[in-house]
Write a structure and sequence with these properties.
The complex is a heterodimer of chains A (about 325) and B (about 300). Chain A has about 325 residues and is α/β, with parallel strands linked by helices. Chain A folds into two domains: about 240 residues, Aldolase class I (TIM Barrel); about 70 residues, no CATH class. In chain A, about 30% of the residues lie in helices and about 20% in strands. Chain A contains ten helices and 15 strands. Chain A has an eight-stranded parallel barrel, surrounded by six helices. A three-stranded antiparallel β-sheet of chain A has the order 8-9-10, with no helix packed on it. In chain A, strands 11-12 form a two-stranded antiparallel ribbon. In chain A, helix 1 runs parallel beside helix 2 and helix 3 crosses helix 4. The longest helix of chain A is centred in the C-terminal third of the chain and has 20 residues. The relative contact order of chain A is 0.15. By secondary structure, chain B is an alpha/beta fold. The radius of gyration of chain B is 18 Å and the shape is globular. Chain B has an eight-stranded parallel beta barrel. Chain B has one domain: TIM Barrel (Alpha-Beta Barrel), CATH 3.20.20.70. Chain B starts with a strand and ends with a helix. Chain B contains eleven helices and twelve strands. Classes of the chains: A alpha/beta (about 325), B alpha/beta (about 300). Chains A and B meet through helix 4, helix 5, helix 7, strand 10 and strand 11 of A and helix 3, helix 4, helix 5, helix 6 and strand 7 of B.
Chain lengths: ~325, ~300
């Protein structure tokens, strides 16, 4: 039986090693520039580090994917093309791309390269998958968090393109690649600058016993002393709607679909993705190990799969004060 | 440069839409985009209605384009896209599904939600039969110019309206009523201009329109029509807004023809807009900012 592949985030070399050591089948990473959607200061890999990471993973029978999944503008495409060239020459196992221009370049220049379609490409239906397969020969698509497991299963029955879905971590409630909230408030977004809600625009300020959180001077939330919040983004802010203040878009939640492993396996999903290249090495180690244990437990006894309390505790402890959610994986 | 009328993004209901397009037939726009972009549950017009409206608009010389859904995540969504792609008009694709389903069309437009951020993407799209690109809304003037300098494809810029900022599987209007998309009561129809989202300081920030989040401010590029024309953009899109669209089109047309100053045009637009204007993206800044390029702007203001 082909097992669910575990794709875990690596913001730096120690995190990559932590992912591989704790049971990841794949560590995914990015270059140190705007070509990837986690272009945070102090994060990501130099070419030499990628080389070392690939050697580390390959010597243990594991893989490395490189995310080159933002949208070049002006005359910058050559930087994205260079990233594709570097990924190829560094023997990365697949590149995760989003922009049609970059996809065209990669496919034309490297006919045998494994191209995965990033969640940033907003590809969530069979005709869209067919489009990217026909024009770019994509091997895998990372699905946006907008589908139920039942819908994923229907999709599986209609294509041989591999399906990767998010299992754990920060949750985009809006479809990626077409979300301009951060861009509207700060001028920078994942699409263009590789960062949603950049930390340089975030301010925390105590006022009248409350913690005010602003993004580029726009008030996103006010927290009482007994409230907590994940990293502030527009979609997780609290606003007035029709005269009452509430989380208009999304509660402060993180995705944790570990309990759905049997259904995801049954739906024919190929890979589970853990979000969080910006997170620490200890986060990567903890969530990778927990997810590995849960997935292995499922394959040891598929019909008798039971969530263990310690898996729930360990995975949820990583969520920076936000509650776990199944997103729309069961219903919309 | 021609003005175009973008698709109606809100749920106005069938009667209001029929009336709207009857009026629009007389407006000075070259292209009219019909069809549902936001949510398959809130379609006011049937395919037969759209064919009839489209044919009537063609008779008065309008180029008719059918816009398609921008988030297609289940079979129902996909059926709506398939249905749209069978209509006898040009298509505006807002998802790759529509690009895939529209192979034999008389016109194929890459809509604002296709990621035409750069020359290479635009050239790829041109190569598969796309004949017009509507630039993604967050592109700056310089980023648009970098494409139009090198590509001869027809291009369109969004110049006036509430900005579509995000699409979700979740219906935010239903959420405000304690419901989900699957059991929604079409509450969006109560909000023909969308539902206002204010910060905790009661400052207007966003608008909720079903599964879509929009800007509370109206993007207004009337100051820059000459500049857009100079960089080679030939179509300028006005996004329909409840009750005022005909007046907005009129102001833009008079400005385009040089019959009114930028100052007068802005004064007339201000009377039609409740919340305020923004143009930050055009200048490469945060979208909500309202940048006045002082020297040029002042020199054009003739009160």
């Amino acid at each position: 039986m082909k097992k669910l592949e575990l794709c875990c985030p690596a913001g730096n070399l120690p995190s990559l090693k932590a992912a591989i050591d704790n049971g990841a089948d794949v560590a995914y990473l990015g270059f140190q520039n705007a070509t990837n959607a986690r272009n945070f200061e102090g994060l990501n890999f130099s070419l030499k580090e990628i080389e070392e990471g690939v050697a580390y993973a390959h010597s243990r029978g594991k893989k490395v994917f490189a995310a080159i999944n933002t949208f070049p503008q002006l005359d910058d495409a050559k930087v994205w093309f260079q990233a594709v060239d570097d990924a190829y020459s560094l023997k990365v196992d697949a590149v995760i791309l989003a922009n049609m221009g970059v996809l065209r370049y990669a496919r034309d220049k490297y006919p045998e390269m494994n191209l995965h379609l990033s969640v940033q490409a907003s590809c969530s239906n069979i005709e869209s998958i067919n489009f990217y397969k026909e024009h770019f020969g994509i091997k895998r698509v990372v699905l946006p968090r907008v589908m139920t497991v039942d819908e994923m299963k229907v999709l599986r029955s209609k294509t041989d393109v591999e399906l990767e879905v998010f299992a754990l971590g920060g949750l985009c409630i809006n479809v990626e690649g077409r979300c301009y909230l951060s861009s509207y408030v700060t001028g920078v977004s994942c699409n263009t600058g590789g960062v949603c809600s950049p930390s340089r625009f975030v301010r925390f300020e105590n006022k009248d016993d409350k913690l005010r959180i602003t993004l580029n001077d726009i008030l996103l939330n006010e927290l009482a002393s007994d409230e907590s919040s994940p990293y502030p983004t527009c979609c997780k802010g609290r606003y007035y709607v029709d005269g009452k203040p509430f989380y208009a878009f999304e509660e402060p939640e993180s995705l944790n679909v570990m309990e759905l492993i049997p259904r995801l396996a049954d739906a024919g999903i190929d890979a589970l993705k853990v979000e969080g290249r910006q997170r620490t090495k200890s986060y990567v180690a903890l969530v990778t190990k927990t997810l590995r244990t849960a997935v292995d437990s499922y394959y040891q006894n598929p019909s008798g799969f039971v969530m263990k309390p310690e898996w729930i505790k360990e995975s949820n402890s990583s969520f920076e004060g936000s509650a776990p959610t199944l997103g729309c994986y069961l219903e919309k | 440069m021609d003005l175009t009328l973008g698709p109606v993004l809100f749920d106005w209901g069938r009667d209001k839409l029929l009336e709207f397009y009857k009026e629009a037939a007389g407006w000075p726009v070259s292209d009219i985009y019909l069809g549902e972009v936001v949510c398959h549950r809130k379609r006011g017009l049937t395919p037969d209605d759209i064919i009839k409206i489209g044919e009537d608009l063609e008779k008065v010389g309008k180029n008719v384009v059918i816009s398609t859904l921008s988030l297609v995540s289940d079979d129902k969504d996909l059926d709506v896209v398939r249905e749209a792609c069978l209509l006898p008009f040009a298509i505006e694709a807002n998802d790759a599904s529509a690009l895939q389903l529209t192979k034999r069309k008389k016109g194929l437009v890459a809509g604002p939600h296709i990621t035409s951020y750069n020359y290479d993407s635009v050239q790829f799209l041109k190569g598969i039969g796309v004949n017009r690109v509507v630039f993604p809304l967050e592109l700056s003037r310089d980023a648009m110019a970098a494409i139009t300098e090198r590509s001869d494809i027809e291009t369109e810029a969004f110049v006036y309206g509430k900005l579509p900022l995000a699409f979700s599987w979740r219906c935010y209007t239903s959420r405000a009523f304690g419901l989900m998309k699957s059991n929604c009561k079409i509450d969006c129809r109560k909000y023909p201009e969308g539902m206002m989202i204010e910060t905790l300081e009661r400052k207007p920030l966003f608008i909720v329109n079903g599964t879509q989040i929009m800007s509370a401010l109206t993007m207004n590029l009337i100051d820059y029509l000459d500049e857009l024309r100079d960089i080679g953009i030939t179509k300028a899109r006005i996004s329909p807004q409840y009750g005022v669209t005909g007046d907005v089109v009129k102001v833009f047309k008079e400005r385009l023809d040089g019959r009114i100053s930028v100052g007068e045009a802005n004064n007339r637009l201000k009377a039609l807009e409740k919340t305020g204007f923004c143009n930050g993206w055009y200048h490469g800044k945060a979208g909500w900012e309202d940048v006045k390029e002082s020297a040029e702007w002042k020199s054009l203001v003739i009160e």
